[in-house]
Amino acid sequence: MGEENVKNLKSEQGAALDSIDLQFKDIDAAYKTKSTWEIIRALVILRTCSYNYFVDNSVKFLGLSQRFLGRSLTDFVVKPTFYGHFVAGDTPESITSTVRKLKSGGVRPMLAVPMEEDVNENIPMDEKYGRNLSAILDCILLSRHVEESRPMMQLKVTALIPADLVAKLTILYNEEKITVEEIAAYMETGALVKNECLDEEELSQLHKGLDRLAQVGKLAVEKKVRVLVDAEYTYLNPGMSLVTLAMMVLYNKQTPWIWNTYQCYLKGALSSIRAELDVTKRHNVCFGAKIVRGAYMEKEKLLALNEQREDPINPSLDATGDMYNAVVNAMLEHIKDVGTKCNIIVASSNEGAVRTTIQRLDQLGIDPGEDSVCFGQLMGMADHVSFSLGSAGFPVYKSMPYGTLEDTIPYLSRRAQENRSVLQESLHEPFSLHEVLKRGNLSVNAQLLSGDPLVVHIFEATLEACG
Questions:
Q1: C-alpha torsion sign, points 249, 252, 257, 261
Q2: DSSP 263-332
Q3: Higher pLDDT, 162 or 459
Q4: What global pTM score does this model have?
């Protein structure tokens, strides 16, 4: 395979995929589904989000706007702009409409319920987690409704089990004082977990949380929806892996319905994914992995400094890139051996990581049409990567939060703060967007020529501002 193109890859049905520009400069493929307004909006928003001051204070700005302008006027301004760029919608109809447009460009949805949890949050538990469970089960049903071919959704374990308890499970799992098998046994048979390190209340909350996760796993299998468990902080991740691996043991008998996430900015990413893969091998079940760079770098570094322990983060961006490629390559080599028993999603906006993965797929002779390997990016970011992949026939997903403005803006603000490096990378995309606006041979500009004076004015002003 050459540097520039991947040709004649076969889909599962035997149809040939088109070649893909591995430099991701095929503007026609990348933005053919975008309206002129959406391109202008993307240019402005991605540029705005590159400023740390705006990202750090976005929730504050929203609150001030609602206070002084009122909720209705704030919604009028924010919904068609920042909300519309990053969020799928707040009703089944609006979400379906957003998904339909994505799918017209060959991109699939991966729905995410915006939920935020951390330790030391004193909120009444049962009612909150009951509401969270209901929302997550609804997300499974909605995911099946909007995507019939291999639907996916994201799950935060701390939306169903208290983060303080997960942090304690991390300690116990690291010290080998609790096992995946104990957790799986309770979820399957109701055999109570007995652990002298957990008090009566903690055991009660653990059992309730595992009951909630069991409901998620059972419905996911019934509806054939893949559930991708998000990673969080290093003081939570092993505890979350404990329960996620237990779900894999129970629900991944024939197909990888439950996946875990691996953060490659961590020095131990490769050893972690290998160790967890070994657990599934021991139980002869399928394995699913979402491979990300990671989104909690600043807090992890600060925690390590305050606790006077070794920084868990790789020393440089290059080291993180090398780790990412090493983790992906290890999983590709495993997929070469076991086929669809192992599935991964290369969840990266980095062009180099995507390019390297595609080249390695070709070297190993792995058919992308089997969907053992797919790609993913955040909604509203790296569209030139997502739609280029989708247009060429590669399985690619957009992570799509959905919900009300009040629910999603704090979630998006936190994701933006955690993904500063990705936002900086996204500065490459406005140059592509600018080029689209300058060209007149795309269908998107037909909308401009329809004569809407406001759109024409914004179009001309944006071109002038972008040089």
A1: positive
A2: ETTBTTHHHHHHHHHHHHHHTT--EEEEEE--S-HHHHHHHHHHTT----B-SSHHHHHHHHHHHHHHHH
A3: 162
A4: 0.87
